[in-house]
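thought: fold this chain, then report.
action: predict
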Amino acid sequence: MLALVSVLALSAVSAFAEMKVASLDVLRAISDSEEAKTLFTTVQQELQSDQDALAALQVEIASLRERLTKDSEILSDAERRRLVNDIESKQADLQFQANKLRKEFNDRQQEIISQIVPKLDAVLKDLVEIEGYDFILNKNQQTVLYVNTKHDITRKVTEKLNEKQ
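observation:
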């Protein structure tokens, strides 16, 4: 019995050793590509004026806070309330604009990724044919990007499920 288990274990190890498995960090592969770098640079340049406006608004808020702190003893209650309201209004505007910019950047990033994914799929197909991979795993998401159909046991599992019925 022990000999049989040993033989089965060795055959499983040798069968696994014959499989060719690779891992791929999809997002890094895409973002490190020259096309993506160029497109990301373009997006950064297009959004630079919005980033500059946010930085200017942050400076303005800091200046108003400094004034409120520095001149708090000489400001009337009405002036103090107006200044506090102005700061709060500008902070709300800053938050809104920052969220808007973040959403715009994320949307543009997704557009770039979706533009490059078909090219990535073609490259993977070529690599599978050239290198003979049985499995390609997505490193970050721990998902399978490619499986050789000879390793698909779906039909067998379905048959066994049907037998159990």
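thought: worth noting. Residues 2-13 have pLDDT under 50 and may be disordered.
final: tokens above.
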